[in-house]
Amino acid sequence: MKIMKLLKYNKIAVLALVSITLFSCGSDDLPGESQLDFTQPEKTALDNWINGVYLDPYNINVQYKWNQNTVDNSRYLFPPEVDKVKPALEIVQTIWLKSYAAIGGPDFVKKIAPREIVLVGGVNLNSVGTRTLGLAEGGQRVTLFETDYIDKSDRANVSEFIHTIQHEYIHILNQNKPFDEKTWKTLTPGGYTADWYNYEIPESNELGFITSYARSNINEDFAETASMILIYSKDEYADFLAGIQSPFALQALKAKEAIVVKYFKEAFNMDFYALRDEAEKNTTSVIN
Amino acid sequence: MKMKQLYKYLFAAVLILQLIACNDNTDAEKLFNETPTTRLNNQKTELSEALLSSPQGWKAVYFTDNTVLGGYTHLFRFAADGTVVMASDFDSDTDAHKSEYAIQVGSTVSLTFTTKNRIHLLSDSNNYPIPALRAKGYLGDFQFLYYGQENGEIIFRTNRNNQELRFVKATAEDWADLSKNLVMEQNVIGGEERPLFRLLETNDGTTTHKFDFSFTPATRFANSNSIESGYSVSYDMGVGYTPTGIIVSPAVEVAGQKLSNFTYNDADGSFTATGTGGISAVIKYTTKPLVLTDDYKFLLPGKPLSWFGFFVDDYTIDSPANSPLLYAELEKVNAMLPAGQSIASIQIYANHSIGTFIYYTFVGRSALFHYVTAEEDADGKKVILKHQSWNGNTTVATPAFLASIDKYFMDTEGLYVKAESFRLYYSDPVYTFTSASSPFRMTTWKLQ
Known about the structure:
The complex is a heterodimer of chains A (about 290) and B (about 450). Helix content of chain A is about 55%, strand content about 5%. Chain A is an alpha/beta fold and about 290 residues long. In chain B, α5 (about 325-335) runs antiparallel to α6. Classes of the chains: A alpha/beta (about 290), B alpha+beta (about 450).
């Protein structure tokens, strides 16, 4: 019994000490203002335009000034020419944002969108000689390279640039809702290869891939298939399919297309073909 | 009882904790009077004020990596509104351009050129001077970490490669004369009329040492190796251009003195850096190869058959050893030939069963044989070719369209012949023929 009693007192004593400890170091001095300088640089007309078109309506931050934390420091890259920023963003706004808003509803991109678009001026050349055109990271950030080379008067040039954002956005969509990877895996299992860049595109087409890059893995295959169909017009895509010689390849391409269409319908209730037509219409309106 | 003891100790332990927990005496560790934040802010202000303090802005000769590349001069004039006006001698556009800069706080305070300008040309993955730098551009950076000031200079280290970069105060002349750097570039490359051989000569006050010297314009980099046997010193250096000469990095070290500023002398095309006490380094031309070889002996009578060939439509045309004068002479030949005809090859056969001759072949016309005799200049280690006949006809004159180029082979001073260490795609050995009295050099394969 004695032991029990002692234990009881001790418990109380310990509790008391602990509470003293919790209060004893309290200080009346509250932290003041941060000493760090958070003054924002003066906004230029371009900054204000970006805020009006991207930040306010979509909550997307656009970064065109250099910040080493958002780029790969081991790569030799540089910020875009300031004059090229607005044309690039206009293309992205018209062909990507507007098309998705028209078909997926005005709030679609607001809900599932990269929170940041980073623009890089130059080519992101890889040591094997390939160019990385874009990156999508964690569903949050899209980096677009080669902004300095944008030429709004050249349809092929605009298509390549928009291909990048369409491709990266498909990744972002996939990072939100996965596609039917199980079925996809069974379509062209033998065609995936790490040295996809050693193959000509027509050669890859005949194996059931829409581009050579699609052969790197199934995620890239899905993003390439969806984004290429989006940048083709209906007729161009029909011509592309008509040119495929191998019946196996044709069947695989069509099966992949069907999965893409199903994905957009089931995951986001969107008509993929309507999206393609809208994108084509908006592409034509951008080119001057 | 055991339990009781345990609680006693616990009690004591907590008491002790109580007694020391609130001790905030950190005097012993106080190395600075200010908090880290204040110090960062002060550094930021200090750098910002320094950048704005020089009326004509700042000059930096940026050696991105002085083991492979030379220096690129940049001029900066910073403004308080976050803009900077910049000029560079990276290419022919030496005009000033405006962009933005920021003083950023990360792990330390840094100066970053946040929007595109001339300095970013050094950091373009897709624009690289040599294959080894593929995807790395010119290894440049445009974020510079602030390391303080010294003698009125601002000291930075580059963010990516940790190279020291110093900003020195620029003058009005620096801005006005920047384009002269590119005039100087041509002097470093060397004109057509200059001799073909170049050397670096160091003088430590008593003895001189000689080094061969070769400059690669694409990388602004020079290699210089000792030509003396038993003295294996080499100076490899990046070259930056100035209106009056060159700056090299690393410096040429002679007897403990570091020589990096060389002054150009237009009279002989030399660049001289002078130290104290008779110490100097000179990059200069010479009409004679630095190392003479016995390779000319292939052409002498009594030797087995030798066959050397230069071909216009093959790798020999791209040889770095060909001199500009060779190309100029080839053009002269073609200009004088009727339309549809051009020179195809120049081949030298020595000790062939039909004689020793220069064999000129053409597109659209038949070949010509220039029969010669070969004489030795043993002291000069040269071979002297003397005219015998054209196609076996001793009275016919030299064809007009060949007269100009052929005279270099008939140089009365002779020809130097040298086995080169490089190959031109194929495994055949490469030999050069150099006229002793003019900057004419042709590269051949030794085919037999």
